Predict the 3D structure of the following.
Amino acid sequence: MIVAMTALVATNVLFRAIPGLRSFKFAEEYTGYFFVALAFLGLADTLRHGGHVRVTLLLHSLAPRVQAVLEIGLTLVALPVVAIIGWFGGKLFWHSLQTGEVAQTVMQTPLWIPRLSIPVGCALLILALISHIRRNWQASRRSTGQSS
């Protein structure tokens, strides 16, 4: 999506610079849609690779078992937050699909298309959070010498 956004913006800039060519009327709109999709659809993968912003100074000074238990607790807090965002994102998507709502732009893009990335991204993040809990549960069990 970053490549698509870059290509769209660069082409639009080029078209503006060449006399006689017109800029794309949809470039800003679609770049915004790509950005939202990139953000929501990238959340789970970012969690999986440990890329979310974290404060690890205190965490690294704790024992491995305490770290794992703290990770589980914080992830359990994150789950309902993501679920609520996904729920309302899903309602927004469904409303757009049911009503045929379109963007008030030249392209009149059906809004269910860009809005679909919200519930899908949240669902993927919930699965990643559950996997994160499982990994930390296993780590906490290993650090105490128990089998999982």
In short: The two ends are 40 Å apart (CA to CA). The chain has a mean pLDDT of 90.
